[in-house]
Design a protein that fits this description.
Elements lengths: L3 E5 L4 H12 L3 E6 L6 H4 L4 E4 L5 H15 L4 E4 L14 H29 L2 E6 L12 H21 L4 E8 L6 H13 L5 H16 L6 H13 L6 E4 L3 H10 L2 H12 L3
Parallel strand pairs: 1-2, 1-4, 2-3, 4-5, 5-6, 6-7
The structure holds NADP nicotinamide-adenine-dinucleotide phosphate.
The site of NADP nicotinamide-adenine-dinucleotide phosphate has 30 residues, from helix 1 and helix 6.
Amino acid sequence: MIKVILITGASSGIGYDSAKILAGQGHKVYGAARRVELMEGLRDKGVIPIKMDVTDEQSMADAVQKIISAEGRIDVLVNNAGYGYLGAIENVPIAEAKRQLEVNLFGLARLTQLVLPYMRAQKSGRIINTSSVAGKAVIPFGGWYNVSKYSVEALSDALRIEVKPFGIKVVLIEPGGIKTDWGIIAADNLSASSKETAYQDAGFRMARLLRFGYTSRFLSNPKRVAKAITRAVNSRYPKVRYRLGAGSGLIVFFHTVLPARWWDGIMRKICKIK
Ligand SMILES: NC(=O)c1ccc[n+]([C@@H]2O[C@H](COP(=O)([O-])OP(=O)(O)OC[C@H]3O[C@@H](n4cnc5c(N)ncnc54)[C@H](OP(=O)(O)O)[C@@H]3O)[C@@H](O)[C@H]2O)c1
């Protein structure tokens, strides 16, 4: 069945690949991001680019109205836009922490609110939220990013129960390390927030680790996550959670079974925090 899909964060990485694959399967895909120019290559594949900033209420409302006017329905919302502002809790300016939550949590929540009335009227719909293993396990300097993704997990779990009577399904995607621009943006934020502070050595070390990891062959291809998203779109009975990608299973397993101090010790060892 052909579905009308709105996917955020479609200008890069996981969102770009997801939009491409879903349009290739014949779905009507609207790809949203701030950098519309990066989505020109998706036009040939049938994706319709929409300029959207998930911190801007008007741009989200306009996008939803545009799709409803053209298609009369929205079957799937993929809330995928996001980034990592990494840094020590003491260092990260509260304005940056708020912005982290504006993009990763409140943008996702507001867009969900905007599409739900249409999905309820249709008596069907699917909300697919890109969370992360960072929504299940905490890393040093990941504090505000962890807060944002733990919140996405909680919000999605509550939403799933609330909207079931209306035929709407809620799915969480929990990627591990995926080779996209995410790691370099996170490393740059970590370096900037650690510079000339008490956390500089450990922060710089962690930023170097991130840069190494995100330019290496060890991380997973974003197409893997895109394929999980397409399964969540197409499957009659989608899973509640799709956890996949480098390290995801092990990280969540150890964070769950190990005593908190053991986990802290491993993290301190990796980041060489005495
Ligand atoms: N890569 C990983 O290792 C990893 C692991 C777990 C979870 N994730 C999550 O996966 C999702 C996709 O990330 P990615 O890895 O594909 O990173 P990416 O390549 O950096 O893509 C991030 C996307 O988010 C969009 N975005 C950022 N801020 C936005 C805003 N204010 N308004 C609208 N769009 C915005 C960007 O578009 P514009 O800049 O053009 O607006 C871009 O398309 C994110 O939620 C991320 O947290 C990533």
